[in-house]
Amino acid sequence: MEAVFNHYFWGASYLVVLIGLSAYGIHRWSIIYLFLKHIRRQVEPKSHFTELPAVTVQLPLYNEYYVIRRLLNAVAALDYPREKLQVQVLDDSTDETRAIAAAECERLRAEGLDIVHLHRTDRTGFKAGALENGLRTATGEFIFILDADFVPEPDVLKRSIDYFTDPAIGMVQMRWGHLNRNDSLLTRIQAMFLDGHLLLEQTARCRSGRFFNFNGTAGIWRRQAIEDAGGWEHDTLTEDLDLSYRSQLAGWKFEFLPDIVIPAELPPDMNGFKSQQHRWTKGSIQTCIKMLGTIWRAPIPFLLKVEATMHLTSNFGYLLLALLCVLMLPQTISGKAAPHTWLVDVPIFLATTVSIATFYICAQRHLNPRGWMRDMLLLPMLISLAIGMSVNNARAVLEAVFNQQSDFNRTPKYGDARKPTLTRRKSYLPLASLLPVLELLFAGYFAFCAWHAIMLGQWTSVPFTLMFFVGFSYVASKSVGFWLQRWGFAEREPAAAA
């Protein structure tokens, strides 16, 4: 009797988790459909400004020693009337970045650029607090926000500002490019992850009339849209997602411009990537908890509410994936005598694995029509990395659910110092944690699962268990390797990137 109970308990738990993951996979299919339906529709400005409006460029900084000069030089080169352009360097730095930024601002001011260096000694609200502080003295009707690692082309404002001739538009988001896409296997996979989100999801949601979000940088806000939504708030780690929903609920429309690309830097090491993903995941769940009730009470169409719910809850998928990891071996053992139910297995496979593969194939085929097949060779590793990140991101979900507060840990940016020929200062390296120990244990766990499946002759399970093994092994080894590398770093002081 106990064996029968265990068989059905583990089998039912496993199936419930798979159904949950399948729901998000089905939603991913809907995004693919909407993208393919709308991608060929050209979006043009409603008209053109006869006189260009005033724009304030906000540059939130925190200890950006390696990239500050590159950023300011790129902003100074913007092709926009100087009398219509204000630049705010919103500097919360505690190191030499402050002195470099102040000196560069003085130099550019002498060259005729309206630029101000606003330094805070109190980081209240972190990035959201800095943006809120800058808005008080901003002179522009429109606010162009750039993170420190972004390098805009000179014509970016002239190419995008005319979309605001539509008085209903509150925000225009440009697509991110990747300065260091080909630096390593990790950066190539990250680029594929972001391409899927920034091309497929944003395009599909925007052009089908769903809500979508400002990505925190590389976008222009109408100041009135920020103020109508209640301004920047800093009770979540994703102030961009939070403000986006409040602004759209206030009646403002957003536009996504996939053909205008602003390149930026991808985290070059695993711990930087994990820190970034932890912040994004935790912040999205915080925003979900904060906004979901408001969304369902709002007088908006039912389909918008459903899409917003799937969007804001999507990172719960990492918690389901972590649960799947734990349940895989008990299910294998308890189900050793049970035949496979193809009526269940095939739809779940199509909803999960196949939907992920198709999602990223669509993105790369659109962006790189000639070379996308080469990138598709990385698909197994992309899925493995997503699996390997599940513990890191499930932890972020639980921290948000149980309201565990944490600081805004920025993603370190290195400029040319990301190259192996240069030494990075230890203080700029991301924080290491004990999480790789758990990830190594999971790698060993899935090595055993793969062996056990082989012994039972469950051959359809072997590729999946090996994928889990590779994912956790890769994430853990890169993190542990980072520890060793961190301890061996010399504290040499390279020159700030030009």
Structural class: alpha/beta
Distance between the termini: 72 Å
Cα gyration radius (Å): 24 Å
Q: How much is the average pLDDT?
A: 89
Name of the CATH superfamily of the domain at 55-280 and 290-300 = Spore Coat Polysaccharide Biosynthesis Protein SpsA, Chain A
Q: Identify the CATH architecture of the domain at 55-280 and 290-300.
A: Alpha-Beta Complex
Side by side, the strands of the main sheet go 3-2-1-4-6-5-7
Describe the global form: globular
Unreliable stretches (pLDDT < 50, length at least 5) are: 336-341, 489-498
Major beta-sheet overview: 7 strands, mixed
Write the layout of secondary structure elements.
Blueprint: H1 2-38, E1 55-61, H2 68-76, E2 85-91, H3 97-110, E3 114-119, H4 126-135, E4 142-145, H5 156-160, E5 169-178, H6 185-207, E6 219-222, H7 223-228, H8 239-249, E7 253-264, H9 270-297, H10 302-313, H11 316-334, H12 342-367, H13 372-376, H14 379-388, H15 390-401, H16 435-456, H17 462-488
Parallel strand pairs: 1-2, 1-4, 2-3, 5-7
Antiparallel strand pairs: 4-6, 5-6
Helix pairs in contact: 1-6, 1-11, 1-12, 2-3, 6-12, 6-14, 8-9, 9-10, 9-15, 11-15, 11-16, 14-17, 16-17
